[in-house]
Amino acid sequence: INAELHGISEQTPSLSPLSLDLCSSSVFMSQGGYQESYQMMPGSGSPPSVHSRERKCRWCNAIIDDGKIRCAKCGKDVDNFVQEDGPEHIGKGLQMGVTSLGHHTLSGLQDFVQEPIKGAERDGAKGLLKGVLKGTGSMMSNTFTGVLDFSVDTLEGLRNTPDAIVNKMRKKNKNATPTYHHGVEAEGEGKILETYVHEKTKPKHVVEGLSRGLKSFATGVFQGAHQLVTQPVQGAQEAGFMGFAKGLQRGVSRAVTKTLAGTLDLATNTLEGIRTTPQAVKDSLK
C-alpha cells in the first residue's frame, strides 16, 4: 500500500495539498486552515467513512473540536484560507451569515454566564470580578466577529447572485449561447462580478485588508472607465451610429459591473482585515 501511495504521489504532482505519511499509513489532506486526518486500514487502499475524520490545525497540529472555528492551542482561525466559491447567491449568503452570527453570539453568551461562575469558584469575589470582565469581553468580541462574518457572507452572496440568475435562465433554455464572461465580456471565463483579489489567504490585519481592497477598487474603476470610453468608439467604427449606441450600452454595462466588483472587494477585504486584526495584535505581543 505504501509503495502504491508513493507511486501515486510521484506521478501526480498536481495533488500538492495531499501529503502522505508512509510510516503510519495516514493521509493528511489540507483544507482551509485545518487538516483532516484519515487512518488507512491495511489492504483497504482508501480512507474509511467520513465519521472517522479528525480536524487538525495546520499551524500547530492540535485537534480542532467539532463546530469550533478557532484552534484552542494556538488561537488561529481554522478558516484562514479564502473559499473559492462562497455562497451561491444572496439568500445562501444571508443563511450562512445568520448561522455564523448565531454561533458566535451563543458562544459569547455562554462565556458571559460561565466565566463569572468559574472565577468565583476559583478565587471568590476577586475571581467573580475577573470572570465578569472576561465573560463580557468574550461576549462583545464574539458578537462583533459574528456581525463581520454576517456582512462578508452577505456581500459574497450578492457577488454570486448575477451568475446564479443567469445559470438558472440557461437551464430553462438549453440552446442558449453563453454571452457573459468576467465583467460581461469575452476577456476570459469568470464570474460576472469576478474579484480582482488573487491572494489565497485572508488579510492578516486591517491595513492589509484595506490595501488589497483599495487596489482592487482602483482596478475596477479604471477598467470600467476604459470600457466606457473605448466601446462606443469601437462600435461607431464598425457600424456607425447604431454601432455607437450598442457600444455605449456595452460600455455602461461593463463599467457598472467592474466598478461594483471592485467595490465588493474593498468592502469584504476591509471587513476581513478588521476581523483578523485582534489575532494579529496578540501574535505581535508574544
Q: How would you briefly describe this protein structure?
A:
With 286 residues, this protein is an alpha+beta fold. The chain is 60% helix and 8% strand.
- Helical amount: 55-70%
Proportion of strand residues: 5-15%
Sequence stretches where pLDDT stays below 50 over 5 or more residues: 1-53
* Number of discrete helical segments: 3
**What oligomeric state is this?**
single chain
Give the terminus-to-terminus CA distance. 43 Å
Main β sheet profile: 5 strands, antiparallel
Global structural class: alpha+beta
Strand order of the largest sheet: 1-2-3-4-5
In total, the number of strands is: 5
Mean of all residue-level pLDDT scores:
75
Order of helices and strands: HEEEEEHH
Shape: elongated
Provide an overview of this structure.
The protein has 286 residues and is of the alpha+beta class. It contains three helices and five strands, in the order αβββββαα. A five-stranded antiparallel sheet has the order 1-2-3-4-5. β1 (18-21) and β2 (26-31) form a beta hairpin. It is elongated. The two termini are 43 Å apart.
